[in-house]
Amino acid sequence: MTQITFLHGARDRLHAIAAWLAQSCSEARPVLVYVPTDERREQLDRLLWTHSATGFTSHCRAEDKLAAETPVVLASGLDSPLHDGCLLNLSDEIPPGFSRFQQLVEIISVEDGDRLPGRERFRFYRERGYPLEARDISEGI
Fold this sequence. Notes:
Elements: E1 3-10, H1 13-26, E2 31-34, H2 38-50, E3 59-61, E4 72-75, E5 86-89, E6 103-109, H3 112-127, E7 132-136
Parallel strand pairs: 1-6, 1-7, 2-4, 2-5, 3-4, 5-6
């Protein structure tokens, strides 16, 4: 059964996601990032290039020919995922087919537009019996 981790209390969701992805990349943990909207995917892509002055989070889009070799892959859909390890949801909805992954990570900010849909997703997973972990990241990842 999919382990679901909620990291909540982020001041800025995209920056928290970039920090979490950098940490995952340094641990050589492959992550598929579900980003269904072009605008958010562009924002995250730019941020992963610039968020750290001394580092780089290796990433690409799912359609890139190097996707199978890249630790962080940004995907607009989940029809043909590259792996079933870790899925990071950057959608405000339940990601389609999330249960085929070993882990689902949700990073939630303090903004109502992010926090309230996040609560609904938490409730959805809890009501269906998924193992849940919640951790406050207001002080950092």
